Amino acid sequence: MAGIEQRHGTRIERDSMGEMEVPEDALYGASTQRAVINFPISGQRFPRRFIRAQALIKRAAAEINGELGLIDPEMAAAIVAAAQEVADGAYDDQFPIDVYQTGSGTSTNTNFNEVISHLAERRLGRRVHPNDHVNRCQSSNDTIPTAMQLAAADAIQGELLPGLERLEGALAAKAEEFMPIVKTGRTHLQDATPIRLGQEFRGYAGQVERAARWAAQARDELLVVPLGGTAVGTGINAHPAFAARACSRLSALTGLRVQEAPNHFCAQNTLDLVISAHARLRAIALALWKIGSDVRLMGMGPRAGIAELALPETQPGSSIMPGKVNPVIIESLTMVVARVVGNDATIGFCQTGSLLELNVMMPVAAVSLLESAELLGRSARNFSERCVEGLTATERGPALVENGLMLATALAPEIGYDEAARIAKEALRSGRTIRELARERGFSDEQLDRILDPAALTGTG
């Protein structure tokens, strides 16, 4: 590699600030090493999907720069090959910079430029400059937000949507399976009129179907990217045709419909799209919390609780209570929801870094957004596979219906609200059923079979 001196396990690299000792086997250079020294914060690095997205941006840029005659074809081919190796995961250890770093992600963009230039030099046998060649027509200020959005869109497409689709299918199947089962409905956690267990699950399936639409909307929003705006949105030092052609190439490389932002100034000086997209992820997370919590409530027991559902047994639940089984899959899901809600607060606050022409809290927003999309997808799939698909209904739900106080609601059209309320209160006080008390008030068994038919009470009209 050009300009490298050996020195006791390190080598000397140079950047615009001067010399810097770098580990001799590192593919990166002086600027990356400065960032490693400057940000010893968390030990958390950018995740795989982000590395892949940024590398694909470098590949697409090199291909378009070669086609536009901005770099020679041989150099373009060497950069393309090097960037693809990085995208494929061959050099993840060469991206050591902490997430809590330069607010624009400049350190990480420089890291990519240095690694890819060194790899390209090996292939080409001559100098490949990290800025003049690998970074041609680009800036950290447009590539980092583009990588953030592209990585998250890929996670939604590859993790979240498949997870939601599986969960929706499982819930819809359970809705059909459970439709014959009539049980007591509950509002305010108090007894209400009868409902079919299948109707409850139809509601859950509808929630997830709607969540999938939200996820697709978030993906599509994120695919409108800032690439081409370079430093401040003006596109300085970029060829006029670069952005549109690079986005088209990224579409071909990822299978996603990547589009150039119509307004580069708002595309990179705010986090508006990221905040909007993550708001949908938060809504999805809270929908999953509702479904999981309901299943956990209906499975509470198995003897001393509601116990209308039997949850699959996945692992022993206690180190001291033999035979105890806990709803651990749902507990895992609800902790993911907590993380996503926290990430939403983080991303919202990151908008405070949107100062004049650039947001300077992009790295933490990027990892938060990507984490949420991946966690939601994996937990939705896990909830479906290890809980919902193995749910069974117990006899307890139907058995409680006849004792339900809210059967009095069916009497209200016959005897009025006030008299029906008196019957309900008397049933609660005496422990007798609504049917027994109504019979004493002159209703025949034939009338009561018609009026208090639990299945009929789950319909409309």
Structure description:
By secondary structure, the chain is mainly alpha-helical. It folds into three domains: 101 residues, Orthogonal Bundle (Fumarase C, Chain B, domain 1); 210 residues, Fumarase/aspartase (Central domain) (Fumarase C, Chain A, domain 2, Up-down Bundle); 57 residues, Ribonucleotide Reductase Protein R1, domain 1 (Orthogonal Bundle), CATH 1.10.40. Helix content is 58%, strand content 9%. The strands form five sheets. A three-stranded antiparallel beta sheet has the order 1-2-3, with helices on one face. Helix 11 runs antiparallel to helix 12. The longest helix has 39 residues. It starts with a strand and ends in a 10-residue tail after the last helix.
Element-by-element helix/strand order: EEEHHHHHHEEHEHEHHEHEEHEHHHHH
Q: Kindly state the number of beta strands.
A: 11
Structural class category:
mainly alpha
Domain count:
3
Largest beta-sheet details = 3 strands, antiparallel
- The CATH topology annotation of the largest domain reads as Fumarase C, Chain A, domain 2
Question: What is the number of helical segments per DSSP (H or I, 4+ residues)?
Answer: 17
Residue fraction in strands: 5-15%
Q: What's the N-to-C terminus distance? A: 80 Å
Indicate the CATH class of the largest domain: Mainly Alpha
Mean pLDDT: 95
Supply Rg: 30 Å
